[in-house]
Specification:
The complex is a heterodimer.
Chain A: H1 2-31, E1 35-39, H2 43-54, H3 59-73, E2 92-99, E3 105-112, H4 117-127, E4 132-134, H5 135-144, H6 155-166, E5 177-178, E6 189-190
Parallel strand pairs in A: 3-4
Antiparallel strand pairs in A: 2-3, 5-6
Chain B: E1 2-7, E2 13-19, E3 40-43, E4 47-53, H1 55-58, H2 63-72, H3 77-91, E5 97-103, E6 108-112, E7 120-126, E8 134-139
Antiparallel strand pairs in B: 1-2, 3-4, 4-5, 5-6, 7-8
Helix pairs in contact in B: 2-3
Classes of the chains: A alpha+beta, B alpha+beta.
């Protein structure tokens, strides 16, 4: 019996020691919530999201407003209007928002002439049973939801586009076409023979040109 | 691109992305940002993640989904991010990319692929332990 009681106490002691180790870490984890984390050093986006939480907004509100602030600020030129013109000189936007409670997702891709892409993505969750809307149809949806339809071009995006044209459209993302896409602008036609080379993906992407 | 993960006081997770994509892309091209599991992923039973970089490569590996699944299995967020980057490295050693991860207890981390010109990744964190949104840096692997 005594041995048994001793065993019980040993068990309790082990449990208490275990809790003693875990509690500070657990408390630290609890103190570390809420948390807002975002890619790149986009401070105003982080600050906006944090203030939304502080003012009682939801996590989805914080994501929408935080990313939306980056769209307004044109963060690094890689977010929002007036950046990353495509081959025809147009800026198009992609955005997505996800609710980790319901697993609902709202997203827009290749969105044209609407600045607040993450806002439209949120409306996809709120007003449709779909997940992803693309292209001009996504823009029409945005207009129906009350978003302004406006030009996303800026002097900067026009300048980027002009420079690219003046550099024989280099770099670009074509392969296996004629004329040779590494030297010339299009229009391109497909080459009869397709060659398979290992992709060299690091050459064109950098801190100012990324998803 | 911006990718963001927000975890509320009760552990509720939300995530999102916004981007104008790759410069001089073909019209119609879409990257990883609007694809759930690629650009970002959120699950209030595990955590959230968001990726950034070369979407044409990264979207093939669903890195955000993979990171959240690692965290669901109990992997520390930093290690979860690193494992995702390592997995892509095996197929595309020169890819440009990074990922941020956070779990439902508020732990967080990030990782990136080291290539010439990209050896560190900067990201922002706000939580009650930091007096203001704070820039953090990780060395790429």
């Amino acid at each position: 019996m005594a041995a048994g009681r001793g065993g019980d106490w040993q068990g309790v002691t082990v449990v208490l020691l275990f809790l003693g180790v875990l509690t500070p870490a657990g408390a630290a984890s609890a103190a570390a919530l809420p948390v807002v984390i975002n890619t790149w050093a986009f401070r105003t986006a982080a600050d906006t999201a944090w203030r939304v939480l502080e003012s009682g907004g939801s996590e989805l509100d914080a994501v929408e407003r935080g990313c939306g602030q980056c769209e307004i600020d044109q963060c690094d030129g890689s977010v929002g209007y007036g950046g990353s013109p495509d081959e025809s000189g147009e800026t198009t936007l992609d955005a997505m928002i996800m609710d980790g409670n319901t697993m609902e997702v709202g997203a827009v891709a290749d969105l044209r002439r609407v600045k607040n892409a993450i806002g439209v993505a949120r409306k996809v969750i709120e007003y449709t049973k779909h997940t992803l809307l693309v292209g001009e149809s996504a823009s029409l949806f945005a207009v129906k939801m009350g978003f302004p339809y406006e030009d996303l071009t800026t002097q900067k995006s026009l300048s980027l586009y002009s420079e690219w044209l003046n550099q024989s459209c280099q770099p670009n993302y074509w392969k296996n076409v004629v004329p040779d896409s590494s030297k010339s602008c299009g229009p391109y036609k497909r080459r009869e023979e397709v060659t398979y080379k290992e992709e060299q993906t690091s050459s064109q992407r950098n801190i100012h040109n990324h998803d | 691109t911006i990718g963001m993960v927000v975890i509320g006081a009760s552990g509720t997770v939300a995530s999102g992305t916004s981007t104008n994509g790759a410069i001089h892309k073909l019209p119609g091209r879409v990257g990883d940002s609007p694809i759930a599991g690629a650009g970002s992923y959120a699950d209030s039973t595990a955590g959230g993640a968001a990726a950034t970089g070369d979407g044409d490569i990264m979207m093939r590996f669903l890195p955000s989904y993979q990171a959240v699944e690692y965290m669901r299995m109990g992997t520390d967020p930093t290690l979860a991010c690193q494992k995702v980057i390592s997995r892509i490295q095996k197929y595309a050693p020169k890819f440009f990319g990074a990922i941020i991860c956070a779990n439902t207890t508020g732990s967080y981390g990030a990782a990136c692929n080291k290539i010439p010109g990209f050896t560190q990744f900067h990201f922002m964190v706000s939580n009650p332990l930091l007096s203001r949104p704070t820039e953090q840096v990780v060395d790429c692997i």
